[in-house]
C-alpha cells in the first residue's frame, strides 16, 4: 500500500493497478431455473452473508441460490455455530412484535380445491407443499420471523401471476410475494398462513440495449447474475448489495434497496425506467417503458418501488445501467473528529466529484471491534489511535488521471488537517483488506454478543450526535458502535451489550426513534418497514401521509390480500 | 477553436480555458416579491426565450419576471414581430383542441362572497381582479391557450394555500395552480374560469446544507435565482432549462421538467428528496424529507412529480444539488450516418463516462436551417457537408485532465471513423457559437414558416428512423428537421411546411403518434400532457394504467377541482 506522506516533497508516486475484481461471467446461468444450483461469485472469507447487514455484505460467503430446494443450508450451519446467542435475542424481539398482530379473520383458509386450481394453471411441480421447502420459504434470512404457509407457488409468466392473484383475490386468500427472501424486517415471509408467490422462476433477461444501457428483465433475476450479464456487455448495475448472490431484482425494486453504489448512481427511483406489476385483482399494469424521459401522466411505477409488495407484484423491470469504468481506487484514512469527516465529505464531493463512488466511515469503537473480533484483520494505520476512519473509493475511466486526482485530493486534505493519516491501496488485495475492516463490522458485532441494531438516515451534520447522545445515555452498561454510508447520510448504530436486558432496551427505545424523528431522520434508511417497523411508521411519516398511503392501499388492494400486516401500521391496515 | 486533426502526429495541444459563464449573484433577490422587477442573467441575443422549445432556450432573451404585473411584455413585442404566422397556426390547433372540451357543469361560478373570503385570508393586494394582470395569467407562453379566469390568488404560505383549497373544494370552485407559466401544453392556464393560484409569492430558500448539498425552498422560487444562490455556495441545480429566468421550482417539479442536465444528473424523480404538497381538500402532506435514503413506506412524493398540479399543489421542495465543477469543454463534431452517432454516444458514455454532461445531435437539414435563418451563425466545419452533427460537452473537476481525456476520446473516434471532422472550443465565445447553432434551431424553424412540432422519446436505436419514415411519407410537400437530446433519447421532430395545410397534418397525425407508440416511445418526453395531449395519452400509456391514474385522481381530488381538463383523457376526467 502507499502511505500518504505529510511532507509535500515526499509525495509518493503511484504505480498501482486497478484492483476491483470483475464478477465471472454468469450469462449462461441467467436462464437457469431456481432449482439449478448456482454458485455466487462473491469472494470473501467464511462469514455467512445472511448474518451481515443488508448492504454490509459485499464480499461474503459463497451462496447456494437454489431458492426453493436447499438454499441457505450451508449458511445456516455457520449461523448456528457462531451466533446462537444473538438469535435468542432476536427471537424475543420477534415474539414481542408478533404478539401485536392477529390473523385477519376476513382471509380464507386454504382448501383442497385451491391447490387443485393452482396445479391446473401452474403444473404440479410449481405448486409446492413439501414441508422442508416450505420451511425455508416461511423463515426469514435472520431466523427472526417465521410464518406457517402451507403453499408456495412458482409462476413462470406474468399471466400466471395474474391468474394466481385474480383467484386469491376472489377467494380472499392472502399472499406474500417473495424474491430471494433476503429482507431484514420480516417483509418477505408470511406472518400466518399466507400463500407464498416466489418469483424465482421468472428469471430471464428480456432485452438489453447497448447504446442506451437499458436492461429489461424479469423480476426473478438474481442481482449477481444481472451484474455478470452486464459485465460481459461492458455495463454495471447501478446498485450492488451484499445479498446480491440471492436477492432478486424484483425484490430489490419492491424494497427500494440502497446498497453501495447509491452515493454515485442514486436511488432506484432514478434508475428504474419502467416496471410491469400485477395488482391484487390480477390486472397487469404495463409500465415497462425503456425511456429516460416520459412525461405522459402520473408515473405510477414509483408506487411499486419500495412498497414491499403490498400494492402489487413486480413481474418485470426496466433499468438504466451505467457503463463499466476501468479504474477503481481506494483510500483508508483517519480523521480526528466527526467535523473533519463531514468537511472531508464536502471536499471529496467537490474535488473528486465525478469519480467519487463510496464514502464510508467507522468510529474507533467499530475499528477496535473489527481488530479484536475478526481473524486476520490489521489496522492499516497502526502508528497512532484515531477517532474516526474513512474509506474513499473512486471509480473512473482513466487509471492514471484518476489516481493522480485522488492523490492530489488526499495531499490537500492532509495539508489542511482534515485527515491525520492515510493509505492508498496499491492492488486488489490491499483494497480487499481495507474493505474487510469496514464490511467485517457486522460480523464483529455479532461475535461480540447481544446486539441492538438500528439502520437510520440522519442529516449528515447531526448524524454522529446520536451515537454520542446514546453513549452518554447508556454509560458503561453497553458499547455504542457507529459506522455506515456517510456519503448517503446512512448511520448503522449498533449497541453491543453484555447480555440481553429489558432495562437496556428501555434506555434505547423509543429514544433512538424519537431522536431520529426529532432530527427529521428516517427510522429505516434501506431495510424498509416490513412487519418489524410497520407500527413505528409515524416516527418518520406524518399522519396525513400515512392516511393517504392507507387509502392507496385500499384503492389498489381492497381486500388487503397483498403482503398483509406489513408496511402500514396495524391500526390502519386491519381496517382495510 | 481547436481543429481535431486526422493525423495522430498532428494532434493539437490544448490551452483553452473553462468557458461556461457563471450566473451573476442573485441571492438578494431570492426573497424579492414577484412584483419587483427582476432581470434574468441569461445571456443570448434577441430571440425571445418563450418562443423556443422548453429545454431549447438556454441562452435566451433577458426576461422581466414580474409574473403578475407586466412580465413577458417585452417578449411579446418581439414575438409579435417575428412569428405572427406561426401563431395563426397554433391558434388553429388550439381551437381544434378546445372544441373538444366542455366546462364541467358541476363546478360553481365565482360569487362576490368568494372574493370577500379570499380577501379575508390573503389580504386585498393578493387577490387580483385587474383585467390586464388576469390577461397575462390567462394566456400561455406560446399564445396558444387562453382561459377566462376572473381571479388570481397569491398565497404567501402553505397555510394560505391550504385555506384556499379547502374553501374551493367545499364550494366546488375549480383551480389552476400556476408557477412561471412557461409550459408548452396548456397545462398552466385556465381552460374556462378556473381560479388561478400563482405560487410566485412563496419564493424563499428555507435551508441549505453545504455538506450534503440539500436545498429546501418554497415552490415559487425562480429556477435561475436558485441557480445563482447555489453558485455562491459552490453548488448547481441538477436541472437547467431555457425557461429558467421565469419558471418556478414548484412548476418544474409538477411537470417533471427535463432540460439540459438530465443526461448527467438524471430526472427529478431521482433528485427531489422531499416535497410538501396541499391536497384538494386542504390537507397538507409534509413529505419534505432531506434524506438520500428513506424506506419507510410508499414514497408518495413521486405522485406529485409530473402530475401537472392535478393531484395537489406543491408548496415546498427539497432537492439534492451537485457540487459545482470547474472544468467545462465542448466539441462540435460531424458524423456521416446515424449509426455513427449512436456508436459515438456509446463510446462517450464509456470513455468520458463520469465527465459527460451533454450529448446533442442535429441532422444536416437542421444545420442548413440554422445557417440560412440565423444571423451570425457559421458552420464550424465548413469544408465538407456532413449528414449529422453532434455536440459533446464534458463537465469535471480538473481542467487539464478533462481536456486531455476529451481530446484522447475524440482522436480515437476520428481514427475509428465514427466522426469525420470536429472542433473543440477553446473559450466561452467559441463554445457559445457552437451552442448557438444547436439552440438556435427552434428559432430558425419558426422563422422558416408554418411548423408542426413534436417532442418525443424513442429508444435511441430507432430514434432517427422516424425522421426518415416521415421524410419518405411527406416527400416534397414539407421539410423534416430532426435534432434533440440524443443522450436522453429525446427527439425534437419538426416539420416545416410552406403553409398550414390539413392535408399535411393528416399525413403527420396520427402517424407520428402511432409510430412512436409502436416503438414504445413517449408522445411527450419533457413537456407533459396538459390540455394539448390529454386525449392522446393512450399512445403512451396502457388502458389499465390510465384507469389507475383516474382512480388516484378521484381518490385525492374527488371533486376534480385541481387543474381540470388536463393530463387525464376527457372521457375519464369528466366522470370524476
UniProtKB/TrEMBL annotation, chains A, B:
Cellular compartments per GO CC: mitochondrion
GO function terms (MF aspect): (R)-2-hydroxyglutarate dehydrogenase activity; FAD binding
Entry keyword Oxidoreductase: yes
Domain FAD-binding PCMH-type: 145-324
Signal peptide interval: none
Keyword entries, A-Z: FAD, Flavoprotein, Oxidoreductase
Name under which the protein is recorded: D-2-hydroxyglutarate dehydrogenase
Species this chain originates from: Rhizophora mucronata (Asiatic mangrove)
